[in-house]
Specification:
By secondary structure, this protein is α/β, with parallel strands linked by helices. It has 3 domains: 124 residues, Rossmann fold; 234 residues, tm_1862 like domain (pyruvate-formate lyase- activating enzyme); 66 residues, OB fold (Dihydrolipoamide Acetyltransferase, E2P). The protein is built from 14 helices and 19 strands. The chain binds S-adenosyl-L-homocysteine, iron/sulfur cluster and FE3-S4 cluster. S-adenosyl-L-homocysteine binds next to strand 13.
Length: 452
């Protein structure tokens, strides 16, 4: 029987939150709420929040704030704040969102259905930010998947104990703990059986996978996942530079499903700032890992995260970062202006930079990287790349001159994670096709399927 009650979930933040939102949808499904994309239809609204930067946190409050008015005309509506802001704020969340029903911390998923039932029976303002060492386990629920989804995230570990001084994650996601290999393999086998071709394994520091539990190592886990029938590609994020092992480099080189791409956040190119950030490596150690990686895995594509304007960052420190970006030639970067988080130690560091200075530096860095992104994209011209088709693209975008009218356009990603557009009526979503690249744009590539 079709449910007549609906759940709307709004996700902010990292890929882990995308994965968690699916779990929340599945729990709500078991409580009788069908997932909807139409917020007006919703009987339960969940905002799955992120507190990594001030802006993300504000986005959550502004989204949830809207329901104060809506609840007046729809009193049965249940509003939930889930995720990292919920974990960080607890009771305090009611000060800014008085009409909230549930504050659901990052380790409270196994109790979510109970809280929903309690609200339905008349309870109010439930807060659950208790630590639970066990990771919430549930098998993928296809009723909460987007249709035609060829690529899925799979969280393999939770928490972080690195305590980088700018970062809230260790405080909102708890101690580092890994899922059991058998659970991960079972989940991915099920996904592959339902048509998923690519998985991205998620953890704050995947190189520490299984270390505490005395289970298999991350490269060993990759080896097992590599054997799953029907799966074409394996990606993972994030690797911490201080723990990037030779075994992992060999796994990237030798396991055919593991993509030749690594996301290795450097955060800064200055030794002084890296030390203040508590990153546990020097600029030279990072560059040495990159050289070894390029030796072991020729043509590897590289991406990174960088924070500019960390407290006390001088122009010289910032120039060291620009210099590192020139030296490595990343395929892409994710760059952020440092955002002061009161629960992280750097909030108390002296010499905080003003917002304008941070933004000026951010723009300079992004401008510099643009040239490398374009260079890396242009290097693909005349190459033939394997592309996993993710969807149809009927919009003209990215300054395309070659868009072919009257021809179906498809889109997918190369092994190096570059977006590729091409015309074709022969293929379907989920196919792996060989595309000869003819043109490069700032954010994507264009080509034709190889004739065979
Ligand atoms: N575990 C991953 C990072 C997760 S957070 C790692 O260690 O790399 C994703 C990115 O957000 C970080 O890499 C960092 O670049 C950025 N970030 C974290 N805290 C931030 C802050 N306070 N201000 C600005 N950016 C931040
Ligand atoms: Fe945050 Fe550092 Fe942990 Fe990454 S490794 S989640 S940046 S504390
Ligand atoms: Fe944000 Fe929490 Fe992810 S703070 S980046 S949603 S782990």
């Amino acid at each position: 029987m079709k449910s007549s009650r609906y759940a709307f979930i709004y996700t902010i933040g990292c890929q882990m939150n995308v994965y968690d939102s699916e779990k929340l949808a599945s729990i709500l499904n078991s409580c009788g709420f069908e997932k909807t994309d139409d917020m007006d239809k919703a009987d339960v609204v969940v905002c799955n929040t992120c507190s990594i930067r001030h802006k993300a946190e504000e986005k959550a409050y502004s989204f949830l704030g809207r329901f104060s008015r809506i609840k007046k005309t729809k009193p049965h509506l249940i509003t939930v704040m889930a995720g990292c802001v919920a974990q960080q704020e607890g009771e305090k969340a009611f000060e800014r969102v008085p009409h909230l029903d549930i504050v659901l911390g990052t380790q409270a998923f196994s109790r979510f259905n109970r809280h929903i039932q309690a609200i339905q029976s008349g309870s109010s303002r439930i807060v659950d930010i208790e630590d639970s060492p066990a990771i919430y386990e549930s098998l993928p629920d296809s009723s909460t998947f987007e249709e035609n989804k060829v690529s899925k995230f799979v969280t393999i570990m939770q928490g972080c104990e690195n305590f980088c001084t700018y970062c809230v994650v260790p405080y909102v996601r708890g101690k580092e703990r890994s899922r059991k290999p058998d659970h991960i393999i079972e989940e991915i086998t099920l996904l592959a059986g339902s048509g998923v071709k690519e998985v991205t394994l998620l953890g704050q520091n995947v190189n520490s996978y299984g270390k505490k539990e005395g289970e298999i190592s991350f490269p060993e886990l990759l080896k097992k996942i590599n054997q799953i029938d029907g799966l074409y590609r394996i990606r993972f994020a994030t690797s911490h530079p201080k723990d990037l092992s030779m075994d992992l480099m060999h796994a990237i080189r030798d396991l055919e499903k593991v993509c030749n791409h690594l996301h290795l956040p450097v955060q800064s190119g200055s030794d002084r700032i890296l030390k203040k950030m508590n990153r546990g490596y020097t600029r030279q150690q990072y560059l040495d890992k990159i050289s070894e990686l390029k030796r072991q895995c020729p043509d590897i594509s590289l991406s990174t995260d960088i924070i500019v304007g960390f407290p006390s960052e001088t122009i010289e420190d910032f120039n060291d970062t620009l210099d590192l970006v020139r030296a490595v030639e990343f395929d892409s970067i994710f760059a952020f202006a440092y955002s002061n988080r009161s629960s992280a130690p750097a909030a108390k560091f002296s010499a905080q930079l003003d917002e304008k200075e941070k933004l000026d530096r951010l723009n300079l860095l992004l401008q510099l990287q643009e040239a490398y992104t374009e260079k890396k994209n242009k290097e693909q011209i005349a190459k033939t790349l394997e592309v996993l088709i993710e969807g149809r693209s009927n919009k003209k975008h990215d300054g395309y001159e070659f868009f072919e009218k009257n021809m179906e356009q498809m889109t997918g990603r190369s092994e190096s994670n570059k977006i590729v557009h091409f015309p074709s009526s022969r293929f379907k979503i989920g196919d792996m096709v060989r595309i000869r690249i003819e043109n490069a744009y700032p954010h994507s590539l264009w080509g034709h399927p190889e004739l065979n």
